[in-house]
Amino acid sequence: MSLNEVKPARTDEESAPAVPYYWKSVDWDGLMRDYPPPPHFQQTTGKMSDQELRALQNARFLARMDDAWRTPFYDTRWRAAGIEPGDIRGLDDIEKLPTFTSDDLKEAIAAAPPFGSHQPVTAEDLAGTPFKVHTSGGTTGFPRLTLFDPVALEVQAIQTARALWAQGTRPGDAVQITYTLAMANAGYCGLYACLHWLGAMPVTTGSGVVTPSERQLEYALKIGTTAWYGRAEYLARLVQVANETGFDLRSLKTKRLHSFLGPDVDGHLRGQLEEAWGCPVYDNYGTHEIGQIAFECEAKDGKHISEDTVYLETADVETGAVLPAGERGNLVVTSLHRSTPPIIRYDLRDLLVAYERSECSCGLCTRKLSMFLGRSDEMVKLRGTNVYPMACQSAVTADPRATGEFLCVVAYSGEGLSRRESMTVRVEKKSDEIDDAAFAADMEAALHRDLSVRVAVEIVPPASLLPLTQVGSTGKSRRLLDLRQNGK
Ligand SMILES: [Zn+2]
């Protein structure tokens, strides 16, 4: 059959469904005005006056309230709290709205599967708008599904592009992304940030599971990778692989690492990475639903918040009362750009400090966030003392025999009246040659000092903990395994 004989596909416009083309589904100029990517961000929403910003946040908050009232999830919860449409006139009233947690979202999904009563989409909605589905890195059960429409996808990419730019990445850089492009959104934040909003070349190697670590280093060498975007634990793993295989990391063209350091309060992890890679390491913060909302700039003096995309509060862990700026509490977030699903007063149970707005030496004027300080729902009461598993991190990363991976296992020990809670910290060693007994004794002493309570230490083989601790993708590894529910 020659080409001339091929009949064109039938183009019956009456019966063919209209395709919601991605490139037509966004008002791109409007998006750039509303959520400016770099370098415009630096001149616009990244340096507004307090009054201008408050007015912008207020208008977006009220629009998101309208979206939320249309969902059974918010409508039911708010009416149960005695709130009617129109009662909330702006951000000054936000504290009247109840907060919710990921447990509430799980219930909403169980009640209206698969997406939940907070994101009620019909088959027509799915056919009329190009949606992407992502999952959270939940610690138990089936992962939580979240829909991303084009605005949600592009704004989280713009948030990430702002971060990469503030940390020095520019058009022409090659950014190696070591988050796997699968169900979690972190990898896509990096990919779309580079491709759509920076003109930097994404090198999407994914994690060591999909591209072996030795090959990752070869790609970096051959392509000339200038920046990396990935989990701190994996960037540390690459150091280990380089050492084992005699690969000189300094032979690469790496100029910076864009990472998620987690609660590296004393800077051990950052220091180790910077020493090994020979370049600065920048910290970022984000979560599944609200994207990468906070980023360090080259000043490394707290993390700038993309305040045109998110409104932040911090709340007392015990009472839920909103705290003044500068005090550590649970981060409560309201997305200012998401319509599906609307996110209004989501208590993430991430412990952080949010500071007042201030001018930074980089030129931005924003509120700033502290380091991620741990999960408040991982707090354990051990013999009357509150213990946060994240408080183990400094001691673990400070010891050169440790890979940095650890897991606190809480269980009951003993029987009857002598039964009590005990915590064992599993610490991963760097190599099999290390003396377990001496290492464990030193770790026990260091942890006793940091936690103010005595815990047992179990030294475990290299690379044995990652399957248990790697649940998310943004530096918020699981550090607690609670076996008490089983009565064991
Ligand atoms: Zn700055």
Summarize the structure.
With 488 residues, the chain is α/β, with parallel strands linked by helices. Helices cover 30% and strands 21% of the residues. It contains 14 helices and 21 strands.
Give a description of the structure.
The chain folds into 2 domains: 50-373, Rossmann fold (3-Layer(aba) Sandwich), CATH 3.40.50; 377-486, 2-Layer Sandwich (GMP Synthetase, Chain A, domain 3), CATH 3.30.300.30. It has helices at 28-34, 40-43, 50-69, 72-80, 102-111, 123-128, 150-166, 186-197, 213-223, 232-245, 268-277, 393-398, 436-451, 466-469, and strands spanning 132-135, 145-148, 174-177, 201-203, 227-231, 256-260, 281-287, 291-295, 303-305, 310-315, 328-335, 346-353, 358-359, 365-366, 368-369, 380-382, 385-387, 402-413, 420-429, 456-460, 480-482. Helix 7 crosses helix 8 and helix 9 crosses helix 10 (232-245). The longest helix is centred in the first third of the chain and has 20 residues, at 50-69. The chain is an alpha/beta fold. It starts with 27 loop residues before the first helix and ends in a 6-residue tail after the last strand. The chain is built from 14 helices and 21 strands. Zinc ion binds at residues 297, 299, 304, 360, 362, 364.
